[in-house]
Amino acid sequence: MFSLGPDHILWNYIKSILLDDTYLEHMTNITNACIYIEHWPSYFKKSILVIIPKLNKASYDTPKAFQPIVLLNTTGKLIKKVINNCLQFHTTTNSYLYPNQLGDVQQKSTIDTGIYLTHLVRAGWVKQCYTSVIAFDVTQFFLSLNHVFLLSCLKKAGLNCLS
């Protein structure tokens, strides 16, 4: 089962047409234009909200019995993915990230985080130390950033990755 976003394009279709050099060049031009003029078109921001009932609920009388899912524009998701991959490449190859940055970094998983945390705790035990952990949920952190300031910092760092 699958659901289509507002542009009605499936990932399988995107993958197949990306093999065509002409289409790939057009997508590259669109992506570069978005970065160059610092604009994300409203077309890419369109989404569809789907409400799905959670399984095995005794009653469906409360909102907690349902799971909202947002289906995003597939083309916009592709361009965001390309930009994210470029940023990840530049930040890791230029050592802009703290070496122990594990969240949202390619090739570093939740398991890596658990292994590193376990190592820190056990290393503390060897030294007769106690260990405490504080965790923060920063789900909406990126949305609260000043994006104009973030873009100027990225430009200053030389992260004009697609041009």
Specify the oligomeric state: single chain
Order of neighbouring strands in the sheet with most strands: 1-2
What is the H-and-E element order? HHHEEHHHH
Question: How far apart, in Å, are the first and last alpha carbons?
Answer: 38 Å
Mean pLDDT across every amino acid position? 82
How many strands, what sense, and barrel or not for the largest sheet? 2 strands, antiparallel
The percentage helix is 40-55%
Low-confidence segments? none
Helical/strand content category:
mainly alpha
Rg calc? 21 Å
What is the β-strand count? 2
The amount of beta strand, in percent, is: 5-15%
CA-based shape: extended
Number of helices: 7
Written account of the structure:
The chain is mainly alpha-helical. It has a domain of 96 residues. The protein contains seven helices and two strands, in the order αααββαααα. A two-stranded antiparallel sheet has the order 1-2. The longest helix is centred in the middle third of the chain and has 20 residues. It starts with 10 loop residues before the first helix and ends in a 7-residue tail after the last helix.
Write a concise synopsis of the structure shown:
This protein has helices at residues 11-17, 21-36, 42-45, 74-93, 110-126, 141-144, 147-156, and strands at residues 47-53, 66-72. The chain is mainly α.
